[in-house]
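**User:** My hope is that you can spare some time for a protein that puzzles me. As I understand it, each token names a local backbone shape. I would be glad if you read both lines and explained how they fit together. The protein I mean follows directly.
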Amino acid sequence: MMSAAVAMAQAAVKFPHKIYDFGEVMGNVDSVTCSFDIVNAGKSPLIIEGVYVKCGCTQASHSKKAIKPGGKGYVYVTFYPKGREGTYLKSIYVYTNTSPRKNILRIKAFVKPTLEEGNK
């Protein structure tokens, strides 16, 4: 069982926005990128332990340094719409040294089909 003093000294993660909507994206675009702010609302350094996605059409990276109390870091997400079409909603799993460890961010996009040169 955790003491109250230890619990108060922990890092606390806060995401001002947990969803990013790319809106309509053409299917011939190589990539689109966004970033999510991650704020340490706690009393000790916040560490992003890892960022994971479950689809090859999305990649994510993050700030590598510990985030001081009151400080800000970033999670960067790149979506690859080329050759795809339709509605996409993808989850990004951010693991931190907080409780709970797993945080979920989401991106969404509607990929419009690209007309072939001969069909214009």
Observations:
- The helical segments are 4-8.
- The chain has one helix and eight strands.
- The two ends are 67 Å apart (CA to CA).
- The chain has a mean pLDDT of 90.
